[in-house]
Amino acid sequence: MRSGRRRTRRSVQVSSSERAVGVLETTPVFRYRDALDLPRSESFDANPDLPLSVCVEGPGGQREFQRSTPEFLADPDNVGLFSSFAEDTIVYPPAFFVSARNAVVVGARTILSGSGFFFNDDSIRGGAQQREFINEFAATYSLIEETGLELVDKDGGFRLNIGSRKREQIEGTTVVLGSAEPSNYGSWIFRVVPKFQTLRWAAPKEQLRYLVWCEIPAFQEYLEFLDVPEDRIIRLYPNDCIYELERAVVPSMRNNQAFLDPESVALFAEIRDKLGKRQEQGTRIYISRVGQSQRGHPRAMLNESELVERLVKMGFQIVEPEALSVAEQISTFSSAEMVVGPSGSGMFNVVYCHPGTKVIDIESEPHWIHAHRCLLASCGLRYGIFVGATLDQDFSLYHKPWRVNIDALVSRIEAWS
Q1: Would you put residue 307 in left (φ > 0), alpha (ψ -120 to 50) or beta?
Q2: Distance CA 262, CA 378 (A)
Q3: How many CA atoms lie within 13 A of 378 on its CB side?
Q4: Domain ends where: 255, 273, 300?
Q5: Are 145 and 108 in contact (CB under 8 A)?
Q6: Pairing of strands 31-32, 117-119
Q7: Residue 53 CB contacts under 8 Å (≥ 6 apart), including other chains
Q8: Phi-psi label, residue 227: left if phi above 0, alpha if psi -120 to 50, beta otherwise
Q9: Cβ distance 16 to 147 under 8 Å?
Q10: CB atoms closer than 10 angstroms to residue 42
Q11: Per-residue model confidence (pLDDT) at position 49
Q12: pLDDT of residue 164
C-alpha cells in the first residue's frame, strides 16, 4: 500500500441510456433469500437460460474445520478480556456461486432479483441468524453495507431508496467481487481474494469482467498478480451507483468467519511461492501501527514508541505494512521466523507466513478475537495471544487507546524464541 502517484484504471464501457423496464421498476418490495435455496445448476454454463441458479462446489455439504488453541494466553495486567480458549469446530456452508440474469447490485454485495428477493455472497440459515441479519441490515448505519434498502414491514420487506445514485447498465457476464467491508485490507484478504479460487473451478476458461471496489493501490496490485486485465475491471462505487447487470456471477464468501479453508490456504501459498521468500532463520518482525496512530486512528498504543525501541535492540525489523507494496509485504512476512504485532489489517498478511511461523497477536479489545484466532489457526501457524490494557473497560466503543506491558511482552518473546 505504497503512497505516491496512483495508477488510473480504465473501466469497461457501460451504458446508462435507453433502459428497458426492469427489476427496479417492477419489484416494489424485496425480501432476503438464502443463495443456497436457489435452483441448482451443475456447472457454470449448464443452463444459461435459467434466470437464477446456484452451483455448489463438491461434495456440497456442510464443511467443518477444527480450530486449534493458542499456545499461550498471556494477560499480565489481569485485564480479563478472555477467560480461556478451547479447541472448537468452525462450521461453514459449502462454497458456491450464483448465476443471475437481469440482476441489480446495490451496496457492495447485495443482489436484487426481479422475483422479489435479494441475496448476497453468504449463506445465512436458521430463523435466529436470519432475524439477526435482517435487524443489522435494517440499521440506520449498517456495519454490513450501505445498500439504500429500507425496511418497510415487520416481515422483513425492504424497499430500495435510490437517492442520488446513478444507474449503469452492464452487458454480458460480470463477476461481482464485492463483499462486506469492501475498503478494509483484512476483509479483502479473507473475503475477496479466495473468490478467485472459486472462479478456477467455476469458470476456468471464461473471459470475464469484474465488478470490484479497488480504490487503493494495494487492491489494484492484487488484481494485477491475480491476472485480472485492466480493461476487464468495472469499478464498484457503492455510494454513487447502482449496477444493472445482464448476467451476474456471484462467488460465495468461502471463509465467512476468517478461518481459511484448504483451498484458500493453497491459493495464498501459491502467491507466496511466486512473490515471497523462504523463511530466514532468526528473522523477527514487529508490525507497527505507529504511523496509523500518528494519523489519528483511535486504537492507538500509547507506549508503542517505547516498545519499538526495545524490540529494535532485540534485533526485530520494524514493519509498517501500509508503507510497502503488496509484493514487499508478501516478501517480508514470508521471510519471518517470528511475527509480533497488535491486531489489525496489517497482521492479516500472516497468510503469507510459512507454516510453523511463531506469531504473537496483541489484542486490546474483545470484538475481533474470533476472526483473528480463525485466521491464525487455519494457516498452520504457532500462535499466542497477548493482552493489552485500554484506559477503561467500556467496550461499547470499538476502538480505544491502550497500553501494552512491555516488560512482560519482552519476557514472553525471549521465552518463546
Answers
A1: alpha
A2: 8
A3: 29
A4: 255
A5: yes
A6: parallel
A7: 38, 39, 40, 41, 46, 47, 98, 99
A8: left
A9: no
A10: 10
A11: 67
A12: 92
Beta strands 338-342; 52-56: pairing state: unpaired
Mean pLDDT per block of 10 residues along the chain (417 residues) reads 38 43 83 94 73 91 96 96 94 96 94 93 89 83 72 92 94 93 95 96 86 96 94 94 95 97 98 96 94 72 96 97 96 98 95 98 95 97 97 82 96 95
For residue 41, what is its C-alpha cell? 445448476
Does the residue 122 lie in any domain? Answer: yes
User: Alpha-carbon torsion 179, 182, 186, 188, what sign?
Assistant: positive
CATH number of the domain within which 330 lies: 3.40.50
Going from the C-alpha of 115 to that of each of 29, 54, 111, the distances in angstroms are 10, 15, 11
Closest CA to 100 of 256, 253, 254, 244: 244
Q: What is the pLDDT of residue 46?
A: 56
311-318: long-range contacts, CB 8 A cutoff, minimum separation 24: 311/286, 311/340, 311/410, 314/284, 314/410, 314/413, 314/414, 315/282, 315/284, 316/284, 316/285, 316/286, 316/340, 317/283, 317/284, 317/285, 317/286, 318/285, 318/286, 318/288
For residue 96, give the amino acid letter. Answer: F
Total domains, the chain: 2
The pTM (predicted TM-score) of the whole model is 0.91
Peptide bond into 262 cis (omega under 30): no
Q: Give the 3-state secondary structure of 86-140.
A: CCEEEEECCCEEEEEEEEEEECCCEEECCCCEEECCCCCCCHHHHHHHHHHHCCC
Residue 341 domain boundaries: 265-416
Predicted local distance difference test score (pLDDT) of residue 1: 39
Grid coordinates of 132:
439477526
Last residue of a domain, one of 203, 227, 255: 255
